[in-house]
Amino acid sequence: MTARFYIDEDTSDALARVLRARGFDAVSAREAGAGGLPDDEQLDRASRDNRAIVTYNFRDFIVLHRRALLAGHHHGGIIVSYRQYRIGELGLAADGLARIADRHPGGRPEGRSVDSG
């Protein structure tokens, strides 16, 4: 199965384009018309579309992940990058996401929160 990524609005839309050029199914929050929505709604949108959300916002999304676990709720996966990539480095970010997709069944860390490295 091809990995499906939802690029949070704190991350460049260009990352979605780089991922698509590499054959991944990727959409940014802004491309999906979801710019400005709260983080919990972004995670819900990603999960409903069977996508792992890719974000730099580790503080808020780790809290959302813990809340989901405690409540027994499911999400499509949260991929946190602790490094902000410049536009010229998005290929490195895509490499990290490809490694994550290779390590997880279905191409995404469903119900998990992982570091993109």
Give a brief rundown of this model:
It contains 4 helices and 5 strands; from the N terminus they run βαβαβαβαβ.
Word description of this protein:
- This protein has 117 residues and is of the alpha/beta class.
- Helix content is 40%, strand content 15%.
- It is built from 4 helices and 5 strands; from the N terminus they run βαβαβαβαβ.
- A 5-stranded parallel β-sheet has the order 2-1-3-4-5.
- Strand 1, helix 1 (13-21) and strand 2 form a beta-alpha-beta unit.
- It is globular, with a radius of gyration of 13 Å.
Structural class, from helix and strand content? Answer: alpha/beta
Oligomeric form:
single chain
Order of neighbouring strands in the sheet with most strands: 2-1-3-4-5
Count of separate DSSP helical elements:
4
Number of strands: 5
Helix content: 40-55%
- Contiguous uncertain segments of 5+ residues: none
The separation of the N and C termini measures: 22 Å
Helix-strand sequence: EHEHEHEHE
Task: Please outline the helices and strands.
Blueprint (H helix, E strand, L loop, with lengths): L3 E4 L5 H9 L3 E4 L10 H10 L3 E4 L2 H14 L6 E3 L9 H14 L9 E3 L2
Parallel strand pairs: 1-2, 1-3, 3-4, 4-5
Helix pairs in contact: 1-4
What keywords describe this structure?
117 residues; alpha/beta; five-stranded parallel β-sheet
